[in-house]
Amino acid sequence: MTFFFFQLLNSLTFAALLFLVASGFTLIFGLMKIVNLAHGAIYLLGGYITYSVITMTGNFFLGILAAVVALALLGIFEQYLLKFAKGVDLRQVLITLGLAVMINDISLVLFGGDTLSVPVPEFLKTSVDFYDITYPKYRLFVLLFGIVVFIFLMLLMNKTKLGALIRAGVDDRETIEALGVNISRIFLITFMLGMALAAIAGGLGGAFLSLYPTADSEILVFSLAVVIIGGRGSLLGAALGSIIVASLSTFGQVWFPELSYFVIFGPMALLLAFRPNGLFGKPI
Amino acid sequence: MINKKHLFKILVLLLLIGLVVPFFTESYVISLCSLGFIYAIFAMSIDVLAGYAGRTSLCHGAIFGSAAYMTIYHVTVSGGDPLVAAIYGIIMAMIISLIFAALAVRTTGVYFLLLTLALGMIVWGICQRWTSVTGGENGLRGNIRPEWLMSAEHFYYFVLALLVISGLMMWRFVNSPFGLGLKGIRESESRMRSLGYNTTLHLILGFVISGIGAGLAGVLYAFFNSFVSPSSVALTQSVKGLLMVLVGGVGTLFGSLVGAAVLISLENLVSSFTQRWPFVMGLTFVLTMIFLPSGIVGKLLTNKR
Amino acid sequence: MDRRQFIKTSAVGGLGIFGAFESTFAQSTGPIKIGLMAPLTGVLAAGGKEIVEGFNLFWELNGKKAGGREVQIFIEDDGSNPDIALQKARKLTEQTKVDFLVGNLLANTGLAVAEYAKTNGIPYFIPVIAADDLTQRARIPNVIRVAGYSASQTTHPLGDYAYKKLGFRKIVTISQDYTFGHEQCGGLSQVFTENGGTILSQLWNPLNTQDFSSYFAQIKSAKPDAVFCMQTGADANRFLQQWTSFGMKGKIPLIGAQNTTDQSVIRSLGDEPEGIISASFFAEGNPVPATQKFVGEYNIANKQLPSIYGFTHYTAAIWLVKAINKLNGNIENRPLFLDTIKKTVLEESPLGKPVRLDNYGNPIYDVFIRKVVKRPDGKYWNVPIDSYPNVSQFWTYKPEEYMKQPPYSRTFQGIKKS
Lengths: 284, 305, 418
Prior knowledge:
Chain A is globular, with a radius of gyration of 19 Å. The mean pLDDT of chain A is 85. With 284 residues, chain A is mainly alpha-helical. Chain A has helices spanning 2-32, 39-57, 60-83, 89-111, 137-159, 161-171, 173-178, 183-208, 215-230, 235-255, 260-274; strands at 127-130, 133-136. In chain A, a hairpin with a 2-residue loop joins strand 1 (127-130) and strand 2. Chain A has eleven helices and two strands. The N and C termini of chain B lie close together (8 Å). The longest helix of chain B is centred in the last third of the chain and has 27 residues, at 199-225. In chain B, helix 2 crosses helix 11, helix 3 runs antiparallel to helix 4 (82-104) and helix 3 packs parallel to helix 5. A two-stranded antiparallel sheet of chain B has the order 1-2. Chain B has 305 residues and is mostly helical. Chain C has helices spanning 2-22, 45-62, 82-95, 107-120, 155-164, 179-194, 213-222, 233-245, 263-266, 289-302, 308-326, 334-343, 399-402, and strands spanning 32-38, 65-66, 69-77, 100-103, 124-125, 143-144, 170-176, 198-205, 226-230, 254-256, 277-280, 356-357, 363-374, 380-391. Chain C is globular and about 65 Å long. The interface between A and C is medium-sized, with 34 and 34 residues.
């Protein structure tokens, strides 16, 4: 019983991290129909920047803030580049692929190939004991943070004007443009929000998963699975998808170690083949 | 600037150059050219699906690599004959393409891209974990070339011949009624269906034929490299192939030749000077998509009315 | 990278030409070209960088010459990937026309290049590729483990020590699921069980495991006396951190493979690795003067303590130069070159004791049982607490007998049924 509970905590904390990464990804995919294949590279770069700033200043939150600002700016640049693709979806996706490769190489030059761990703030370094389990405080913090971000994003999407505009744009881009809304600005804001979420995820994830040259493609592949299972543009889908993928990964690791990739991608491939819009997604 | 008649003359000229290259260069360059030819076949197979059926995929690397695995496995583990292994390799490619096609053809565009990416990853995961069969991280190795292909020159001519043959066959295919049907599906799937075409079956067959091309390239790669590992089926392989198609020009078929040549030369040239080859590759991708979205050959073909 | 190398070497080469006049009978006067391959990008980029640093340190301290000829080093990145490694090996051999190949890190890259060396005949020296079979059942005459080691060589004695000195009787092993992991675990399991111990269970995690928490749960429920941990690179970092943050440290004793407590891992951690016992022929905290001299020089040049990657390649350079000097630079005669390498005894090893190769191309070492301790300056390093003299890749078995059993794999771990 304690074993199961332990594993459940592991799944949920990993799910929280995945949600942070995937939520930004699904918003961009939902609104702009762009699969931002550079999302993993952004995560990694965000983590590296957080690490560097913490090493220089000693302040964890300053590190995260620095990453958010830097990557939001990069987001503006990426959005600008994407305009060149003149709205052809496939072309945009491929540009993001090229960008991902470039960002990763730059990260390698700037931060080296060593495995780096983002230092955890002092007050979170210890563990909590309950029942038979010792669990790191930091992971529980990530879980809590994930829940808070989920609530924040849900409120943003459902209770604010911006959220209403974004949701309308996801449903029907043309009509909302015809209504006179400056859709480019909405796109930009959404894009930057997505980048910010990825950057935060990089900083937080870098503390318990560590940062190294291929971490970007690993997290990208998980995010893709989450977004495809959860559905394009749906936050609830991203949350549910994160839990499903994280659980498959955690429990799969123990029960089917030889098939670990299959356990995640098998369901994803089947879902995509028979229900391309995922659990809650809107058709393109 | 050039039209199809010119294109044909240029191709013949290139072939003639190709025939005499080994007399003027040393074995390393000859090997590099052979590798270029193998990738050209690979890229052309991707183009058949992407350019003509309008389905851009990220799984052809997995098909390519699976054929390579099958080929080397048959010779090194089962102790079989290399030519039989080659046939098994192509059959393997057909089986994998069939499975992929059955799952993927109902989607299009970005979803097709993602689904094929996922399917490719599954194959990669299997190659990496099924250690008893695929050798896992270590891969499979063994010099499997038959005696008459041992020298770099012989192998070069062999691959060149296969490149010409497969190129011609793919050209005939895309211009055949079946191939034109694929183009029709790309333009408007619903219209084709209303004309009575079984579009799903059509696409599946097109996918499998594209897979045969990738399989052939994979078999040749196995002979070239005498080694296969999970990185041969990885996403990077599909990305590389796709990039060759994009640089050359989607839907031009022979643009893939140009794309393969450009990328292989760039890779070798750049890595002699700097470690930053991945950056250059990513940059090439971005710049091509922005400035040359129809590729080099695509641009050349559209400039003349 | 190699343009810069070339300019540097030409400058030193100018000085080297003076040396060339010394040798009375030089078969060739052209430079000796060495092809060094290491992962400079990809998952093991950090280790690869140290391979290059270790190798270069020797030449920087001693000058780029050997046997009266100038030495040129051509460095290529193998990308932590066997396909790229093979490409680069071909390029170095056929285009750059090097005289021999050195390096690589991951076993799969080494195996790919070894296969190429087998058909091509070019000498290939592997200070860090530890796949057992390359010097056992599948040995290739021109592939020699100069200054290297075989994977199970250091874990055989660890299995012995764990039973006899540490008093453990029931162990759980957790290792990365690939050949290097299988072989290290196999070495330990075989000797441990032959002494009478029991392996309760064996956990295998894929390379690049993000999260070890589910494995910890399994370890806890098995209730072992100790855990043997074989992880390299990023996995080792994560394992050690998570081992501490999940409260496992101190509750269950941990013994590690040499790569798990290697400097490349522990230097970026805090106190997580303190007290872990491992076995290796190299301990950077060994007070022996020869070792400390090397560690000091390495620290000055690279501002960090040396890992096994830097150490093995530095030693390999010493070894190669000794053999080349003996032949007065005539390495074109390959059989003679290979034979000289095999017969060379390295008196000048930074280990402080002469090192020689066994009849199968693998070195024989004193293996230290080492412990991670804190230095006065706050850094951590591995210090020897015991040693097993003259350990070969075959432990105490007769080579022919040992090679009758299959190589270690996931299915064969040498476990003796009691």
